[in-house]
Fold this protein.
Amino acid sequence: HPVDVSPPLSPLAGSCLELSLLLLLALELPSSGGCPTDCVCYPSPMTVSCQSHNFLAIPEGIPEDSERVFLQNNQISLLLRGHFSPSLVTLWLYSNNVTFVDPNAFRGFSHLEELDLGDNPNLQELSAKTFQGLSRLHALHLYKCGLSSLPSGIFSGLHNLQYLYLQDNRLANPRLATTGQLLCSLRNPAELRERGSRIYPTLPGLQKKESPPPSPLSGPDQLSRYDPCIAMGRTR
């Protein structure tokens, strides 16, 4: 039998090899450090996945640098200020039992781009301040909630909002002026896609994105047909 004459590894070399293996494992496996119990966390970008665990409240220990948090299909009832970090970009809370959203729950969330609160049938009202300051928000999901009305100005400042889902609520058919109060703060109302809701059945100015822009018009009466803000005597 051949004799192995290779020198044994020094303690330092062995430690370096062990450290390298640990680093490789850390890159391959989901992050567990600083992650809420029963959740899975992934880095780059920091993602926290806590769906379908019957949580009754927002789990503790969500990393402050989290950019994506998935909490759908639980039993969460309250959303309060401090539950999440302003670093959030995507937040999914659909199919829970949300009954109350603190008006300041999302204050300072200037990076938030998608917020899904849909399928929370006991969410019956929202404050006009709920979405203030969410300047980057482009998708807002409020479908299948228990909303019977929306306060004036609730969408104020949502200049990048492109997708608004309000179907399957208990919203009545308001007059055009009331509808205009909800939408006149949007910078690009023609890009807003509202699918299936009864609240904006024939609202002027909400052409599909692929539709060509209307030809230039003259006169306030003609312009008001395409801009609810002008119809109300307001400017953006």
